[in-house]
Specification:
Elements lengths: L1 H21 L2 E15 L6 E18 L2 E18 L2 E22 L2 E15 L5 H9 L7 E12 L2 E10 L3 E3 L4 E3 L1 E14 L1
Antiparallel strand pairs: 1-2, 1-10, 2-3, 3-4, 4-5, 5-6, 6-7, 7-10, 8-9
Pfam family, one: OMP_b-brl_2
InterPro entries: Beta-barrel_OMP_2
Protein name: PorT family protein
């Protein structure tokens, strides 16, 4: 009898794990967190990690073991650049649009996620305000914008999600009054909250 109960329990658990990824699902939520940014190494300048922030929304649609997760958030990326005795602090504010593809394992509201995908960054500066940057993001206007590639992992606990990711800059950012340019690489740690799901 104990063997039958154990076998039935294992079968039900496996069924739950399997159907958790096969049945199509959708969720929408908010997220916020912090980042550590750094210029890629240069021979002339030394850089230090500096903290920034990010906040926005995400959606996740999944089925057959995979999910697609687009996000839209505002982010501030800061870096300190040292050149001899001179120290300059640079801050970049942007609207970021990651388009992530991943997979999820787990059941009963608890699971782990692994994902990767491109990120398009729409700069906010003196020539482009938040509304303009958001308009460019919604119309997928890629001209003069920055690209990165994202790798990450996440943990879901019921309605709460924790994500840790690395962004590798694909395009170069100007600095030193536009005389030099380099890539910005980021580590992000975010906390998300699911507002609703289907």
């Amino acid at each position: 009898m104990k063997k039958c109960i154990s076998f039935l329990t294992v079968c039900l658990l496996m069924a739950k794990l399997t159907t958790a990824q096969i049945i199509p699902s959708f969720e929408f939520g908010v997220k916020g967190g912090m980042n550590l940014s750094r210029f890629s190494h240069t021979a002339t300048f030394a850089t230090e990690n500096r903290a920034g922030y990010l906040g926005g929304i995400y959606a996740r649609a999944g089925g057959l073991g995979f999910n697609f997760q687009p996000e839209l958030y505002i982010t501030s990326k800061s870096v300190t650049v040292n050149s001899g005795s001179t120290q300059n602090k640079a801050t970049f504010t942007s609207i970021d649009l990651p388009l992530l593809l991943g997979t999820k394992i787990g059941a009963f509201g608890v699971g782990g996620r692994f994902y990767t995908g491109p990120l398009v960054s729409f700069a906010i500066n003196k020539d482009q305000n938040v509304g303009d940057a958001l308009g460019n993001a919604l119309h997928l206007n890629y001209k003069d914008q920055n690209l990165a590639w994202t790798f990450g992992a996440g943990l879901d606990l019921k309605k709460v999600s924790i994500d840790f990711r690395y962004e590798y800059g694909l395009t170069k950012q100007p600095y030193n009054n536009g005389n030099d340019e380099t890539r910005i690489n980021l580590f992000n740690l975010t906390l998300g909250y699911r507002l609703f799901s289907l």
